[in-house]
Specification:
heterodimer, A: 186 residues, mainly alpha, Arc Repressor Mutant, subunit A, B: alpha+beta, 3 domains, five-stranded mixed β-sheet
Chain lengths: 186, 331
């Protein structure tokens, strides 16, 4: 099961995603993103690592000659398998949420985390101006109702409300990644 | 996004969606990236509602019990708190498109701004501008020199990293090229063997004894989404008038069987037609560690499309093991 995945196996997997190499690369990144978040939702402590393990195992099965009619369904099965295996290994990071910690997180006005705010400012500064503008207006907290505010913003941008929500979500995800990286570097 | 989908996503994220529906939602997220991105939107909304104390009490309790149980998700909540505090408190941003009026305003007002910035009061505009230019130029030179030096250092680092990476790749390539020939022959041999085994399996499936005089109709099934019948079509079971029982051999991936027995040892099967459960079997055990076999009365079947769903449960909860689709032809 372990060992370096061959280029042939990975190429076969990419071909399953799309016959065109470039599109296959895009599809792979999307699949990996989805796998990572699903693993996070399931409670994986290392979702990216487990997502890569999932892809590796699917690639190996393809290399062995398995014919897969429904790749997303198969990936989900393997993902489940990888996750369940991980539960069998003891991991000190798997901490229970005690009452004190819950009280901290759920407090109405907890003390500010200076490091996090510092990183957030830094990461906001790195965003393109139009992204910063969109995020600022999307999350504006003023007298106008949020729904009305976002409806107006969507109309101004010429997109649907759903499309606007997705755009804001992507920018927020990028920010979150940046802040996480920044905090690790501190 | 459909409201029902949103509700399903919310329930999934709060950990209250039944396992089977959760599995379907996860499969859909993998198959449809737009759907997946909608999940992220719902997740953000849930987190924001929690942080701003807008979640109803029941959902709040579910959120704290399930969503906050994961360190990664707790981190998202903490990020959301800081994020909302920062972006919602910022002054209303002007649109990124700058109007001509605004440009004109800025052009006419900067001399006053500069004078007041330096406290130059009534000094002439020309003197103020010259002083500013000199200071600006000196500062720019310093910054520019520093910037160029930093860029050079960065380029050197990148170049060194690339050279190292190239050397590593070349070494791997040399080693792999040697193995490639061997692997190619082995792959070709394995493929030929696999093809031979598939043909045998297909022949066996087609020639299963389904004589009208037989009292037992039987069929071997693989899970849906892995492989269909010999030609990729749904397998068919013919049940003759004298058949008393129908026997189903449900194949399961070897590695999965081991995992199921360790974590979800209570295996049950449901026979489903047109979305309705027709019958159930509990306490199933794999035969020879390879497949689950269930036998059902032939009389309960009519012609049509059927599905057998396999589930496992144990201390770790419940999980779907596989869906097996087949057609029945009742004679």
């Amino acid at each position: 099961m372990d060992g370096v995945l061959s280029q042939t196996a990975f190429d076969k997997f990419l071909a399953y995603l799309d016959p065109g190499r470039e599109r296959a690369g895009d599809e792979y990144l999307k699949l990996r993103h989805s796998l990572t978040r699903i693993l996070e939702w399931k409670g994986s402590l290392t979702p990216e690592e487990h997502a890569d393990q999932t892809v590796d195992r699917v690639c190996r099965k393809l290399e062995e000659g398995l014919v897969i009619d429904d790749l997303p369904k198969y990936c989900r099965t393997v993902l489940n398998f990888v996750y369940l295996e991980s539960l069998k290994k003891p991991d000190s990071r798997r901490e229970e949420l005690d009452e004190q910690r819950l009280a901290q997180i759920s407090a109405p006005d907890p003390p500010d985390d200076d490091a996090r705010f510092g990183c957030l400012d830094k990461c906001l500064g790195k965003l393109p101006a139009d992204h910063r503008d969109l995020i600022g207006r999307y999350y504006r907290d003023d007298q106008v109702s949020k729904i009305e505010n976002r409806k107006r913003l969507a109309e101004e941008l010429g997109v649907t409300a759903h499309n606007l929500n997705v755009r804001a979500s992507r920018i927020r995800e990028k920010l979150h990644g940046c802040v996480t990286g920044c905090l690790k570097d501190l | 996004m459909v409201l029902d989908d949103e509700k399903l996503m919310e329930r999934y994220l709060l950990g209250v969606l039944p396992e089977e529906e959760a599995a379907r939602l996860e499969e859909r997220s993998l198959a449809d990236y737009d759907f997946f991105e909608s999940m992220l939107v719902v997740e953000n909304r849930l987190i924001d509602d929690y942080v701003t104390r807008q979640l109803p009490a029941r959902e709040r309790a579910q959120f704290e019990r399930h969503f906050l149980a994961s360190p990664k998700r707790r981190e998202r909540v903490e990020f959301a708190r800081a994020f909302l505090k920062t972006v919602s408190a910022a002054p209303a941003a002007e649109p990124a498109v700058v109007t001509e009026r605004r440009i004109a305003e800025e052009r006419t007002s900067w001399p006053e701004r500069i004078r007041s910035f330096f406290g130059l009061g009534n000094l002439s505009l020309g003197l103020a501008a010259s002083a500013l230019l000199l200071i600006g130029f000196a500062g720019w030179s310093l910054l520019e020199t520093r910037r160029v030096r930093e860029e050079l250092a960065q380029l050197n680092r990148e170049r060194a990293a690339r050279e190292q990476r190239e050397q590593g790749l070349q070494a791997r390539l040399d080693s792999q090229q040697g193995q490639n020939e061997e692997l190619r022959s082995e792959i070709a041999r394995n493929r030929a063997e696999l093809e031979r085994l598939r043909e045998i399996e297909a022949r066996l499936q087609q020639t299963q004894p389904q004589s009208p005089l037989s009292s037992l109709a039987s069929i071997i099934l693989t899970p849906a989404g892995f492989r269909g019948g010999p030609s990729g079509s749904t397998p068919q079971l013919t049940i003759g008038p004298d058949a008393k029982s129908a026997r189903f051999t449900l194949q399961v991936d070897q590695e999965l069987i081991k995992l199921i027995l360790e974590n979800y040892p209570n295996v049950r099967a449901e026979l489903v037609k047109d979305g309705q459960v027709q019958s159930r079997r509990r306490g199933l055990k794999p035969t020879a560690g390879k497949a689950f076999v269930i036998t059902l009365p032939a009389e309960q079947f009519t012609s049509g499309d059927y599905q057998i769903r396999l589930f496992g449960s144990g201390a770790a909860g419940e999980t779907g093991i596989g869906d097996y689709q087949f057609k029945v032809e009742k004679k």
